[in-house]
Amino acid sequence: MSSKIRVMRKDEVKTFMEGDELCRLYVKTKEIVFGTSTLEPGRKGAVDAGHKNGEEIFYVAKGKVTCNFPKSKVKKELNEGDIVIIPKMEPHELHNPGKTEALVVWSLVSPD
Prior knowledge:
Layout: E1 14-18, E2 21-28, E3 32-39, E4 56-62, E5 64-69, E6 74-79, E7 83-86, E8 93-95, E9 102-109
Antiparallel strand pairs: 1-2, 2-3, 3-9, 4-7, 4-9, 5-6, 5-8
């Protein structure tokens, strides 16, 4: 079994917008998806419909966010260092209610 050690630089990865949310997709394999989302103060990302094959984890690396769950009508306030585990098929949306930039690290095991 041969594994290849890889380094992914932030300026070399796929970058895209979801609403006002700047997303960086660092890696997507058969086993895992890993990326980050940056939100400026007062900005909101698009609603993600949820993932059919696995749970997603958000880790707030910087700032604070509100994670809205429109289907469940639930909002979770997350501060720096907090995580939320998002169940399969749960629509979700990030909002930065703070006064500084927010950085969320996310991972999905068993990618869609």
